[in-house]
Amino acid sequence: MNVEKRREMYKKYEKTKRKRDPEKHKAYHKAYRDNNKDKRKNGMLLWRFNITLEEYQVLFEAQGGVCKICNNPETAKKNKSEELRMLAVDHDHDTGKVRGLLCARCNTQLGHYEKTKPRAQEFENYLEEAVQL
Q1: 52 and 45 in contact (C-beta within 8 Å)?
Q2: Could you tell me the pLDDT band of residue 94, with boundaries at 50, 70 and 90?
Q3: pLDDT of the residue at 13
């Protein structure tokens, strides 16, 4: 049996298994996520930023566990949880090179800054005119 046929059969099996007992399927995957947090974080970091969890930890330790811009620890919480988020991995979108770890607030503000940088002079002119009114 070739690989494609096996994959197709497995997909079909998984789909019917989910339909038979959706609560059991949901519970199994929740337990897997809860028991494999580091494995999932490592996979996400590799996929999105091409760094491992160990490399993330080295950056985190080098920065003293704080944001590279404001020097504060992360304060944002994960959705529906009291658990704090990881510091965000800041990277150059053109080269993919990691620049550092940022808190959620600085990461968001940096994203807005990078998008509006070409219009910075227009913003400055507007603010100067507004003061004169």
Answers
A1: yes
A2: confident
A3: 82
Q: What is the pTM of this model?
A: 0.70
Same domain, 64 and 98: yes
Task: Tell which residue, 41, 60, 43, has the closest CA to residue 98.
Answer: 60
Give the whole-angstrom CA distance, residue 11 versus residue 33: 20
What is the C-alpha R_g of the chain? Answer: 22
13 found inside a domain = yes
Contact (Cβ atoms closer than 8 angstroms) between residue 46 and residue 38: no
Three-state SS for 103-122 is: CHHHHHHHHHHHHHHHHHHH
Q: Distance from CA of residue 67 to its chain's centroid?
A: 15
Confidence band, pLDDT 50/70/90 cuts, at residue 89: very high
